[in-house]
Please model this.
Amino acid sequence: MSTLFEQNILRPLADRLRPRNIADVVGQDNILAENAPLGRMLSSGKLSSFILWGPPGCGKTTIARLLAENTDMTFVPLSAVFSGVADLRKVFTEAEQRRKIGKGTLLFVDEIHRFNRSQQDAFLPYLEDGTVVLVGATTENPSFELNAALLSRCKVFVLNRLDNHALEMIIKRAEATLGKPLPVDEDAKTAIKAMADGDGRYLINMLEAIFATNIKKILTADQLHEIITRRAANYDKDREGHYNLISALHKSLRGSDPDAALYWCERMIEGGEDPTYILRRLTRFAVEDVGLADPNALTQAIAAWDAYERLGSPEGDLAIAQLVIFLATAPKSISVYKAHNMAKKIAKETGSLMPPMHILNAPTKMMKELGYSDGYIYDPDTEDGFSGQNYFPKEMNRTTFYRPFERGFEREIKKRLIYWNKLRIEKQEKKS
Model:
């Protein structure tokens, strides 16, 4: 029971808006609804260990605390950032004592991916014998960050970033709790939700800052920026966000969508990604996905990279944007990529075969006597500029690796190859 003094203390808005039951949690019906995985687990009254994977501010801690309350378990929070093996031993010892009197322990570990392999292994015996029910929270992909042994003992539930509807519900609850409307116009409210970027905790902090000003007038979107600042983008350069965004950029380019490609590129730059990493990936795209459908793609990629290194940021960012648009609108072909992989495979299988004698140089008398270079025809000096000679090993059949598509410049290349193949057949028929 709280004292009168404690009741008079103005609690933070986040604490006052904290959900009191599972039904109050917004935006996570995919796992909390009655017919959803956690909803069914809660209905049964029996919890098993699981991992909550989701972005910041989506309700991971709140869900774990409410589950403990609804199943009459002792809620023990722990942060992997500030805890070590000694802290874990203490938690497990206390959990064993509770278990003797029939009381279960829900151990909530925030940022569980920060524990190293040995620390994660320390959980295993206590999960197996039921000493604790582990609820781990992480913003990182568990399949990359958690041990296979730990993952095999825990279900993984994916939480959503809060959508506009969920954010609107939080705003309405704040207004109801404080007994007054948020003093902003519709455009400003839209801006607030955009700045929250799916993070409920950040949204509540912004709302608290706005209400604390006690402004009597209605704020516009422009005036709003004088009170609050935009949150940093949820982007970690060496974790899953990094790979998700570069994948989105790559596939948007491949899908010939310059607008989407520009968007994902700017998201990476705004998130603090190293521009040279982006340029390296764009250069790879130029040779892997555009290839000879537009040979100028590689030239443009190298030129953009060179321009960025000369100009730096922000001026050089325009060179990156230009390259993104060029690659997105270029014809696409993976014929070079396919040819490379096929030739590489065959080369490994036939790596000991010698080239035919007529295409070997004969710098010494002995080599000439052995037949090196004998019968070689200098193609540029022939009537067609094409001799049709065999350049594969004698023991190997001629193999076609490069098969150009009917796209962009490869149309012209295909015409040449068809013409040369026709000449090759004609010359072979004359010999026979």
In short: DSSP finds 22 helices and five strands in the chain. The longest strand covers residues 74-79. The CA atoms of residues 286 and 297 lie 5 Å apart. The two ends are 105 Å apart (CA to CA).
